[in-house]
Amino acid sequence: MNTGSRLITPYDFDATATEVIDGVDLAGRRVVVTGGASGIGAETVRALAVAGAEVTVATRRPELVEPLVRELADVPGAGLVRAQALDLADLSSVDAFARAWRGPLDILVANAGIMALPERTLTDAGWEMQLATNFLGHFALADALHASLREAGSARVVVVSSGAHRWASFDFDDPHFERRPYDPWAAYGQSKTADVLFAVGARRWAVDGITANALNPGFILTNLQRHLDDDTMRAFGVMDEDGNLTPLPHYKTPAQGAATSVLLAASPLLDAVTGRYFEDNQEVQAVRADAEGGGVAAHALDPAAADRLWEYAQDTVRAWSKAQ
Ligand SMILES: NC(=O)c1ccc[n+]([C@@H]2O[C@H](COP(=O)([O-])OP(=O)(O)OC[C@H]3O[C@@H](n4cnc5c(N)ncnc54)[C@H](O)[C@@H]3O)[C@@H](O)[C@H]2O)c1
User: Fold this and answer.
1) What ipTM does the predicted assembly reach?
2) CA–centroid distance, residue 80 to ligand 1 (Å)
3) Which residues are identified as catalytic?
């Protein structure tokens, strides 16, 4: 496995999902994209399917993916796209999805996510909703699909994190905000730190030919911002006084936002690269958590924290399974 120097690719901020895998033939490769019904997930599905991959869109509402399925069915050379129900906040749904999967899985893109729920919200299992959706559900899914990933021979797991990971390390004493006051951004940041640590902890799967890398897609206006009030949207500079959305120059289109996911999922440049963090199609350097601009916080790359989180997630998921 590649643990060498920082990976710099020929692609930058502006590259689209299709461009970063131009010329790559994914015929015969089987892919799952969670949250592929909208936003950057849909663009990830589009680029991988057009390159020939067979893509399963794992989504809470499969009927909403029908237009995308029809669109890609008309593209010559595109792989088959289908939708299958998955609710990451409900482990019985995760379990059902994994049990129904047959044969190898070449690429798992853990893309689905929610951001900044204003009130502390719990899943039926009693888990804080952002942690459950953004991390624990994806961990459970990857773990349940491990044999299929191994069967693929050289599978890749792509974990969509966020620059918000820098706002919070993982609080092992209180991951579900039972003791500390709930903060929507601390909960989002913690879940996205967990996503990066997941990719780092997955180095234990290298022996099975499975690599895992994490990424920040950049800023993209999508449904993700639906829980933000107008004041927050104005503070972010993406809404004017009249309530019109005004994306800033550093905002990306969904097709650009999906590029780093697709690069990590399918570019030959990433062969055998694992446990790393990318932004704008490049591996980025570790920075102080409070640094301006991009970069990855040291707390998200810490191998000891990654191992501890892996054990925590495995125990949490297994405790849920036993209780069923
Ligand atoms: N848009 C941005 O600026 C931005 C920035 C950084 C990171 N991200 C990350 O990118 C990813 C995709 O977000 P997006 O911007 O495309 O937003 P989006 O809201 O369009 O996409 C998120 C998808 O996740 C799905 N989802 C949510 N909860 C789910 C659940 N319980 N089970 C299954 N699916 C569920 C949604 O239905 C949706 O299709 C997220 O992980 C997000 O945190 C986005």
Assistant:
1) 0.99
2) 23
3) 188
